[in-house]
Amino acid sequence: MNTMPPTPVRRLALLGGESTGKTTLARALAERLDTAWVPEYGRQRWEELRVTLSIDELVAVARRQIEWEDQAVARISAPGSWLICDTTPLTTLQYALHDHGQAPAELHAMARRRYDAVVLCEPDFDFVQDGCRRDDRFRQAQQDWTLARLAEQGFSALRARGNPAERVAQVLQLLRATAPETTLNPK
C-alpha cells in the first residue's frame, strides 16, 4: 500500500504598514480556516516597554516571533492546515533600519524566512491611531519598503484590498489555488 505522508502545516504571512488591517484579517482567516494565528510579538513588547526598541530587543522580538510560529505549528493537528502569521521578521527588520539605521546579520537572515503564501494588506482605508502607531506617512513608507523587499527576495504577494470580508475572500482564493485541499469552516 502506498501511503503519502500528511501535508505539513503551511504558513501564511500577513504584511503591511501600521493600520492596514493585518490583525483583523488574521483573526478572520483563523476562524474561517478553523486554525491558529500568531499575533505580532513586537507590538506586545512595545506595549510593555513603551519605548523605541533597541537593536538587541528587536533581534529578540524576531526570535520570539519565529518561536511562537513554531509552537503554534506544533499545536495544529490537522494535516494540511494553515497557520496565520500576523507579521514576520521582515517587519522587525524594517523597524530596526528605520529607528537605528542598521540591523545585524542575524536579523537580516530571519527577515528572509520563507512562507507558503504572503499577503500584503493595502492601506486603502483611513489610518487609525490607537496610541501605538506612528502616522499615515510612516504607514505608506512601510508599505513601499515592504513591497521593495518582497520583490528583492522573490516573494509573490497577494495585495489584499477592500473591507475585511473582501480581503478574506481574496486570501481564501489564493489559499485554494496554493493548496486545493484547504478546508473551510462552514459559514
CATH third-tier fold name: Rossmann fold
**What is the 3D form?**
globular
Class derived from helix and strand content: alpha/beta
- Helix % is 40-55%
Backbone CA Rg: 16 Å
Lateral strand order in the biggest sheet: 2-3-1-4-5
- Specify the biggest β-sheet: 5 strands, parallel
What would you say the CATH architecture is? 3-Layer(aba) Sandwich
Mean pLDDT over the full residue set: 89
CATH class: Alpha Beta
Summarize it.
The chain has 187 residues and is an alpha/beta fold. Helices cover 50% and strands 11% of the residues. The protein has one domain (10-178): Rossmann fold, CATH 3.40.50.300.
Descriptors:
187 residues; alpha/beta; Rossmann fold; 11% strand
In words, what does this structure look like?
With 187 residues, the protein is α/β, with parallel strands linked by helices. The protein has one domain (10-178): Rossmann fold, CATH 3.40.50. It has seven helices and five strands. It has a five-stranded parallel beta sheet with strand order 2-3-1-4-5, with helices on both faces. Helix 1 (22-33) packs across helix 7. It is globular. The termini are far apart. The model has no long low-confidence stretch (mean pLDDT 89).
Explain the layout of strands and helices.
Elements: E1 10-15, H1 22-33, E2 37-38, H2 41-49, H3 55-75, E3 82-85, H4 89-100, H5 105-110, E4 117-121, H6 136-153, E5 157-160, H7 164-178
Parallel strand pairs: 1-3, 1-4, 2-3, 4-5
Helix pairs in contact: 1-7, 3-4
